[in-house]
Amino acid sequence: MTYKWIYKTPDGFSDMLMNSDGEYLTGLWFEGSKDAAKHVTDCEERRLYVFEDTIKWLDLYFAGKIPDFTPKYKLNNLTDFRREVIQCMLAIPYGETTTYGEIAATIAKKHGIAQMSSRAVGGAVGWNPICIIIPCHRVVGSNHSLTGYGGGLSNKIALLNLERNDMSRFTIPKKGTAL
């Protein structure tokens, strides 16, 4: 059985939806975003312990604090490559960013190969079903373009602002998948 809950975000952000299998958080995404297509929305609404834990985490995060715990989550359909990309995203410190290319280079080096496709990394980043907690918003294009965020460009900008990033170093795409 899949359950859902709605989290009311502070001003400047779209509300968020959560999914759970009853024990673990299995999805977290911005309402109305492209990411919604990856998740179950036609399910029972129930306030579960894992949702309470996630709400506490989100409350701290949106208050500008770095949570000192992580809600219990489970990633379904996790391939080895996706796991490596997730580990790279989890290693990006609060208030910092990395690029798809830098993640690709890290994974290539780990495997002793000359290069890895940054597009493949982009696909794995885009697959991420648990935004913010697994910080896919901290991954940007090689030219520091704020591209490729399924949660919506306005949410990505707001998240990076919340984390006190120097926004002058980023560019906003005029067209493409990020809009």
From TrEMBL:
InterPro entries: MethylDNA_cys_MeTrfase_AS, MethylDNA_cys_MeTrfase_DNA-bd, MethylDNA_cys_MeTrfase_DNAb, MGMT_N_sf, WH-like_DNA-bd_sf
TM ranges: none
Keywords for this protein: DNA damage, DNA repair, Methyltransferase, Transferase
Catalyzed reaction equations: a 6-O-methyl-2'-deoxyguanosine in DNA + L-cysteinyl-[protein] = S-methyl-L-cysteinyl-[protein] + a 2'-deoxyguanosine in DNA; a 4-O-methyl-thymidine in DNA + L-cysteinyl-[protein] = a thymidine in DNA + S-methyl-L-cysteinyl-[protein]
Protein name per the record: Methylated-DNA--[protein]-cysteine S-methyltransferase
Domain Methylated-DNA-[protein]-cysteine S-methyltransferase DNA binding, residue spans: 80-164
The keyword DNA damage belongs to this UniProt entry's keyword annotation: yes
Source organism phylogeny: Bacteria, Bacillati, Bacillota, Negativicutes, Veillonellales
One Pfam family it belongs to: DNA_binding_1
